[in-house]
Design a protein that fits this description.
It is a single chain. With 433 residues, this protein is mainly alpha-helical. The protein has twelve helices and six strands. The strands form three sheets. Strands 1-2 form a two-stranded antiparallel ribbon. Strands 3-4 form a two-stranded antiparallel sheet. Strands 5-6 form a two-stranded antiparallel ribbon. The chain is globular.
Length: 433
């Protein structure tokens, strides 16, 4: 999530560009992803050993599965992006086989960062980005990109993908499992609490990465920089959204175990089929840029894996990045406010229905809890997450000056449409409400 910056430049008298040396910020996103990955792995190992000591074989096996499956996916992703299979790098491949790939990749990225600017190197491309200077005003700047900066950017992009995979294929199921065990046993040991905290932090960070990716993809021509209030707003929004969603699912599962599989399968299948239905209705052909050497079956397999990850993300939180299989980059670059509204409306109604079913069918072990208060807290917590989301888009979005309409305009437009004839609409920035 770091952005490149430029050394001070002075425009020549003829008004053209001057050649400047680029510098970059420390790879904090790579360090964060690596620390979260290692912390969660260590915490899961410690908790699995604790389950083995208490002879909880089932919980130990599930904890190990939710630890290893995302780890293997992370290793494959890093190897695929860096194309190590066709290169003579035995140490790197060995580290990936030992599930330590992120560590060696982080060390490699730090070495590249420390070497940037020490030696003169020819640039391989020129990047032009627009900087927002005022409300809707921008200034175009160009930057020379050398080999080191390109390699560092490759590492950053790879770790963004692995953070999302780790978050929603590993951390979220792990958090759900451990919270379910806590509900069953009515006890939260220290090792389990640490693993749950690490899993929630990893999931929140993965959702944060998705928000930044969505902004960078939609506003590719602009240099996107998030302010500190924007980061705080996204973190609170995502943390509340994911925590309340997981808690609702766990409580529902504790009361109606036979129905939780149906709820999960309906969510996953519906979200999995939605991009494919849109792709089928568009009449487009399969994209050919996934990988040049892939056959038709390989392309479908990759797209199916991406769609599965997409459905897993949307089951727990808003993905921000919308999948479009007919696009060249597989990403829909439009800001679909309608889909956003439908998602949060449906999730709020679903959470309310599930938590109410838990309230009426809960077991006797919850007599020490104030169940009505817990129901209200979960619903208020989810509504609070939606409020922070609206706050982010209204005030803290880095490109809000480029919006054709914002949150307040949309709400005002909806209110006036309900209270006045349909041919009346709000005058202002809105053009596609």
């Amino acid at each position: 999530m770091e952005a490149f910056s430029e050394a001070p430049k002075h425009a020549p008298e003829n008004g053209g560009y001057v050649s400047v040396r680029s510098r970059t910020h420390p790879p904090l996103s790579i360090l964060t992803s690596t620390v979260l990955f290692c912390s969660e792995m260590v915490a899961a190992c410690v908790l699995a050993a604790e389950y083995k000591r208490t002879q909880d074989t089932v919980w130990m096996a599930l904890t190990i599965v939710f630890m290893l499956v995302p780890s293997i996916m992370v290793q494959l992703t890093l190897t695929f992006i860096h194309r190590d299979l066709g290169r003579d790098r035995p140490l790197i491949l060995l580290m990936h086989l030992l599930q330590l790939g992120p560590i060696i990749r982080c060390v490699e990225a730090l070495i590249i960062y420390c070497q940037v600017g020490r030696e003169e190197e020819p640039y391989v491309s020129i990047s032009r980005k627009k900087h927002l200077r005022g409300w809707g005003e921008s200034e175009e700047e160009e930057r020379e990109v050398g080999h080191s900066l390109r390699r560092l950017a490759t590492h950053r992009n790879a770790f963004k993908r692995t953070a999302v995979i780790q978050a929603f294929l590993g951390s979220t199921p792990q958090l759900t499992l451990q919270l379910y065990i806590c509900v069953l046993q009515r006890h939260v040991p220290a090792a389990r609490a640490v693993l749950m905290a690490m899993s929630l932090a990893s999931t929140t960070y993965g959702a944060l990465v998705l928000n930044v990716l969505a902004i960078q993809i939609k506003y590719d021509d602009y240099k996107v920089l998030l302010s500190v209030p924007a980061f705080i707003c996204i973190i609170v929004w995502r943390c509340l959204e994911i925590a309340t969603r997981v808690t609702v699912l766990v409580l529902f599962c504790s009361a109606l175990k036979t129905w939780v599989a149906a709820v999960a399968l309906v969510n996953l299948i519906a979200l999995f089929l939605l991009p494919w239905v849109c792709f089928w209705r568009s009449g487009s052909s399969l994209p050919e840029n996934v990988e040049k050497n892939f056959s038709w079956l390989g392309t479908v397999t990759v797209l199916g894996t991406v769609t599965l990850l997409y459905s897993a993300i949307n089951m727990f939180c808003w993905s921000a990045v919308q999948l479009n299989l007919s696009e060249r980059d597989l990403i829909d670059q439009s800001q679909n406010w309608g889909r956003l509204g439908v998602h949060y409306t449906f999730r709020l109604l679903e959470n309310a229905a599930l938590i109410l079913l838990w309230y009426f069918f809960k077991e006797d072990g919850f007599e020490y809890f104030c169940s009505p208060l817990l129901v209200v807290q979960l619903l208020v917590g989810y509504c609070a997450s939606v409020s922070f989301m609206l706050l982010f888009y209204q005030y803290f979005h880095p490109c809000r000056s480029l919006f054709s309409h914002n949150v307040s305009d949309f709400i005002l437009c909806v209110c006036l449409r309900r209270g006045k004839p349909k041919h009346m609409r709000v005058e202002g920035r809105e053009t596609d409400v």
